[in-house]
Amino acid sequence: MPNTYSKMYCQAVFAVKYRKAVIQDIFKSELYGVIGNLINETGAKTLIVNGHFDHVHCLFQFYPKQAVSEIMKSAKAKSSKWLNESKLLEHRFEWQSAFGSFTYSEREISNIFDYVKNQENHHQKMTFREEYLKMLKAHNVDFLPEYLFKELE
């Protein structure tokens, strides 16, 4: 077959190591922009990056030749390096090694985009753990409760 045609979308969700609420209003927009650009550098196409004080949601389009794990590995490693080199925090910054990824059809993208866009409002009603559990269950993902992100302390 001469060409491969696809349109695949992914929402990836990852948290700050130890679930520390360190993503501050003063730099969060710039951080989300950096993450979006890093996703684009992999050949994927960022639609939106947003989050809350302790986690990030990335919605992007990707292609069959790409592995979501490689896209996230690059975005997470390089964004934490950027954050550390920018000296925006007093301590060393790291993301948790794990992430969640969920795929969507074209007809769902508008709703998912709005969902990611409205993270601040969303988290006035629901914790990150509750949100993440809801996503896992909605996608019928098998999981072990002991490995889920913990609540903020």
Structural key phrases:
153 residues; 39% helix
Question: How would you describe what is shown here?
Answer:
The N and C termini lie far apart (54 Å). The protein has helices at 25-41, 68-86, 109-117, 119-122, 128-138; strands at 8-15, 45-52, 55-62, 100-104. A hairpin with a 2-residue loop joins strand 2 and strand 3 (55-62). The protein is built from five helices and four strands.
* Alpha plus pi helix count: 5
> Percent helix among the residues?
25-40%
Residue runs with pLDDT of under 50 for 5 or more positions: none
Structural class: alpha+beta
- Separation of termini? 54 Å
Strand residue percentage: 15-25%
How is the main sheet built?
A: 4 strands, antiparallel
How would you spell out the order of helices and strands?
EHEEHEHHH
Report Rg: 15 Å
Q: Which strand order do you get reading across the main beta sheet?
A: 2-3-1-4
Mean pLDDT figure: 92
Number of strands: 4
Shape: globular
